[in-house]
């Protein structure tokens, strides 16, 4: 098949496997992250890898992409055994990977960014970028500066960069976790087009609906081993979840909220210009959070969620009049930093687990100390290591965190397990207010259900919770009320009964801004 560049798109021989893994294993010390994993991928196949947090999916992908070396087993590429010692070797074979976290320079154009990894000038690349964009439904302006692009557009740039290297196999690690709901169908159209041209796709996702609608095959992993291989189109979410977690998916239970009278936290007419030149300006935000309720903040990512979380948590303390714009228990606290707010009962689960939620090089005990030290873990200047260890161990047990114990480095945990640990650590602080940004990001369906139930339990015990999430379904499940953030402005509050998908979708694109001011105030009241 001819490609737009006149060269053949590799890998259209549907009969023979493109990639075969033969009893591939990988150990990290005593942990068998992958054990005797065997599978085959054919050209044009969209193949899902499904499994609980820590099941070994990322480890497997890293071996295929040359980031990790297998402890034993063989990798066969087009029928030949290969040693993929580095990503450069993988790319030379025709294996590409699109990571969850983009590696683009904000101040360069799309073409300039791509020219950093494809040996051609930005000018020469521009028409090819446009052609690829048209061919695969990835429209993006080659001369646009990356900072002006939405998350979905940035992902397109990453995908085009990968496609320009003509891969026969593309590995995509949770590609939809960064996209707004409206960005998912176009991405799937692109992936289907690629598959139709013979490109194989390895697709990692925790979202069972997506796997069922997109993928031709699914390999299910549990504790490092392959436990099943199915045609996902013939499965239900329940049967997939059962295969994955080995039991039925827990169903959430909730009773109506009984919020307290007085707000635990308020923002009053808060406007803020971020120090980050590419950040979002917040405009006149009014928000009131009461004890015993969960307020959900919905919105397409990049509309001010990060800036709002930073103001609420105290990571961005405010000066001057800003002091009176943020209140905790009725007292002005805009000037307080994150530590001072924690001392008066606020806990915070940030969006980025590595670097902000946890220090990757530190152990889980040390990471526990970072936020729990004011809670009696330091007395007369001395750290009680034993108590810190006990707290970390409780967190591990209660949140079912899979790791080598409390002294394991945070970076050795799989993404979802680290997220569970961070959420558990903040809950253990027994906060009065919990601000949680993307609390179940990258977490498997079973663990996500457990975290959401835990948030509801906290609310029932009188804690005030504010949950910022890109996942509307998550907010529909946990939130008692919802507000939508759009271009730094917050919509009126919607009750559970009012917050249907159509209404929220309308607010997500700024529909609430057209409402007459009076109507907004009535609804908010
Ligand atoms: N560098 C490492 N050092 C030690 N252990 C590791 C390392 N990388 C992964 N592991 C362990 O290997 C196991 C598999 O981890 P992996 O990241 O592959 O899981 P995963 O299925 O991708 O999980 P998630 O869905 O949470 O991303 C886990 O027990 C993890 O703690």
From TrEMBL:
SUPFAM superfamilies found in the cross-reference section: P-loop containing nucleoside triphosphate hydrolases
Q: Which residues form the signal peptide?
A: none
What is the species listed in this Swiss-Prot or TrEMBL entry? Pseudaminobacter salicylatoxidans
Which residues are in the ABC transporter domain? 19-248, 265-512
UniProt xrefs under PANTHER family: CARBOHYDRATE TRANSPORT ATP-BINDING PROTEIN MG119-RELATED, GUANOSINE IMPORT ATP-BINDING PROTEIN NUPO
Entry GO MF terms: ATP binding; ATP hydrolysis activity
Q: Does the keyword ATP-binding apply?
A: yes
In which family does this protein belong, per the annotation?
Belongs to the ABC transporter superfamily.
Claim: ATP-binding is one of the keywords in the record: yes
Keywords for the protein's UniProt record, in alphabetical order:
ATP-binding, Nucleotide-binding
- Protein name, as recorded: Nucleoside ABC transporter ATP-binding protein
Out of the domains of life, which is the source? Bacteria
């Amino acid at each position: 098949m001819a490609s737009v560049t006149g060269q053949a798109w590799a890998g259209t021989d549907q009969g023979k496997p493109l990639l075969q893994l033969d009893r591939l294993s990988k150990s990290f010390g005593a942990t068998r992250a992958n054990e005797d994993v065997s599978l085959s991928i054919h050209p044009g196949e969209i193949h899902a890898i499904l499994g609980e947090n820590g099941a070994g999916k990322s480890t497997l992908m890293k071996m295929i992409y040359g980031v990790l070396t297998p402890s034993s087993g063989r990798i066969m590429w087009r029928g030949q055994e290969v040693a993929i010692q580095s990503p450069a070797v993988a790319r030379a074979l025709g294996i590409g990977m699109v990571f969850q976290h983009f590696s683009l320079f904000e101040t360069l154009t799309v073409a300039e960014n791509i020219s950093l990894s494809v040996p051609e000038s930005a000018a020469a690349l521009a028409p090819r970028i446009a052609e690829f964009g048209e061919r695969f439904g990835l429209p993006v302006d080659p001369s646009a500066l990356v900072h002006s692009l939405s998350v979905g557009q940035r992902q397109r740039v990453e995908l085009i960069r990968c496609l320009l290297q003509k891969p026969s196999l593309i590995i995509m690690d949770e590609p939809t976790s960064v996209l707004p709901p409206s960005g998912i169908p176009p991405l799937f159209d692109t992936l289907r087009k690629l598959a139709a041209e013979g490109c194989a796709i390895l697709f990692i996702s925790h979202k069972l609906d997506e796997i069922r609608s997109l993928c031709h095959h699914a390999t299910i992993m549990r504790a490092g081993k392959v436990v099943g291989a199915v045609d996902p189109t013939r499965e239900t979410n329940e049967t997939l979840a059962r295969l994955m977690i080995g039991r039925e998916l827990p169903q959430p239970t909730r009773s109506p909220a009984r919020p307290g009278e007085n707000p635990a936290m308020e923002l009053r007419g808060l406007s803020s210009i971020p120090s980050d030149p590419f950040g979002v300006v917040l405009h006149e935000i009014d928000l009131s959070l009461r004890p015993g309720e969960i307020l959900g903040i919905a919105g397409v990512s990049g509309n001010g969620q990060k800036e709002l979380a930073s103001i609420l948590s105290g990571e961005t303390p405010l000066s001057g009049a800003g002091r009176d714009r943020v209140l905790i228990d009725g007292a002005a606290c805009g000037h307080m930093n994150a530590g001072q707010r924690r001392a008066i009962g606020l806990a915070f689960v940030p969006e980025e687990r590595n670097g902000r939620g946890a220090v990757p090089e530190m152990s889980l005990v040390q990471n526990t100390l970072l936020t729990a030290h004011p809670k009696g873990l330091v007395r007369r200047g001395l750290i009680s290591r034993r108590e810190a260890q006990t707290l970390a161990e409780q967190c591990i047990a209660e949140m079912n965190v899979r790791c080598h114990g409390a002294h394991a480095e945070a970076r050795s945990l799989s993404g979802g397990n680290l997220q569970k640990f961070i959420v558990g650590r903040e809950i253990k602080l027994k906060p009065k207010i919990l601000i949680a940004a993307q609390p179940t990001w990258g977490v498997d369906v079973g663990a996500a259900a457990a975290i959401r139930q835990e948030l509801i339990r906290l609310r029932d015990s009188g804690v005030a919770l504010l949950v910022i999430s890109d996942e509307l379904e998550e907010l529909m499940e946990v939130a008692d009320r919802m507000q939508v953030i759009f271009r730094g402005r917050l919509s009126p509050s919607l009750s559970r009964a009012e917050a249907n998908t159509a209404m929220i979708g309308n607010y997500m694109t700024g529909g609430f801004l057209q409402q007459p001011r009076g109507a907004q105030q009535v609804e908010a009241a």
